[in-house]
Amino acid sequence: MPGAVTRQRVPIALLVPAIGGLIFLVLPLAGLLWRTPWTTLLSRLTEPGVVQALRLSLLTASLATLLCLVLGVPLAWVLARVTFPGRRVVRALITVPLVLPPVVGGIALLLALGRRGLIGSWLDSTFGISLPFTTAGVVIAEAFVALPFLVISVEGALRGADTRFEEAAATLGATRWITFTHVTLPLVAPGIAAGGVLCWARALGEFGATITFAGNYPGITQTMPLAVYQTMESGDLDGAVVLSLILLVVSVTILAGLRDRWLTAP
Fold first, then answer.
1. What is the dihedral of CA 68, 74, 80, 82, to 10 degrees?
2. Residue 91's domain spans which residues?
3. Element containing residue 3 per DSSP (H, E)
4. Residue 130 forms part of a structural domain
5. Which Gene3D superfamilies match (predicted)?
6. Domain at 75, CATH number
7. For 37, phi and psi rounded to 5 degrees?
8. Does 3 have pLDDT greater than 60?
9. Helices 135-160 & 87-99, crossing angle to 10 degrees?
């Protein structure tokens, strides 16, 4: 029958490495679950430091995602719909934060937005705005590393969308803005939603750029990943495991929510 899946024997030379790769990915997660202090889990989750770090993480990740949506959706539209010289270069620059070590990204943000930075010195002298080592700095750092996830997802959705609807709207006299808001956005809404979720998850787990650009101050810039690091450094392994478990649960929840988009076999 067309579309039927044909069962066949898997060569042992492929099966053994495949099982090894699966074990390699799953074993650390199993170790985290095995080491979790289940008897004291609830009491540790309600500790003031944990609640504070979780609240700050949710807030900054949400604000960073909102910033990425405001900047990333128009940027993705330009890359998908407008032909201009240097478009490949622009697309390559957008993906740089994906491969750039996060600490390097934090240093770059300091050099650009710090009090003596390229733009930061002007912001400080003109408006009295200082971003490093503030909650706003956390949002900026998270948005910097998370924006490419949104742009790539939305651009892919735009390229896969049927442009005939946009062309029909244009022939009926709709302006580019009306077409964008009433036709294009509804067409690519699933892609925007998926990109937004990935963006939020990446922002929630950001560590290197945050600690470099915003520091690690409880209640101000200490997000969950930074709290994990500090708890581990203080010798409280159980506390670090509990914090890590929260981030693991968030990651699994996001994958479960996106299973129809990524995990469904063709």
1. -150
2. 39-161+188-263
3. none
4. yes
5. MetI-like
6. 1.10.3720.10
7. -75, 80
8. no
9. 130
Contact 105, 208 (CB under 8 A): yes
Average pLDDT of 23-50? 86
d(CA 163, CA 191): 15
Q: What is the DSSP letter of 11?
A: P
Residue showing tokens 């159980």: 238
Take residue 245 and report the two structure tokens written for it: 């478990």
Asked, for residue 157, whether it belongs to a domain, the answer is: yes
Indicate whether 179 belongs to any domain: no
Amino acid at 136: A
Measure the CA–CA gap between 181 and 164, rounded to whole angstroms.
16
Residue type, 227: A
Would 19 be classed as within a structural domain? Answer: no
This prediction has a pTM of 0.85
Instruction: Report the C-alpha dihedral over residues 82, 84, 86, 90, rounded to 10 degrees.
Output: -20
**What token pair was written down for 183?**
């036709």
Per residue in 208-257, pLDDT (tens digit) is: 999 999 999 998 999 999 999 998 888 888 888 888 888 888 878 877 77
Q: Which residues of 148-169 are buried (b: 16+ CB within 10 A; e: fewer)?
A: bbbbbbbbbbbeebeeeebeeb
CB atoms within 10 A of CB 196: 21
DSSP 3-state assignment of 228? Answer: helix
- Tokens 């009306």 identify what position? 178
CA distance 95 to 152: 8
Domain count, the chain: 1
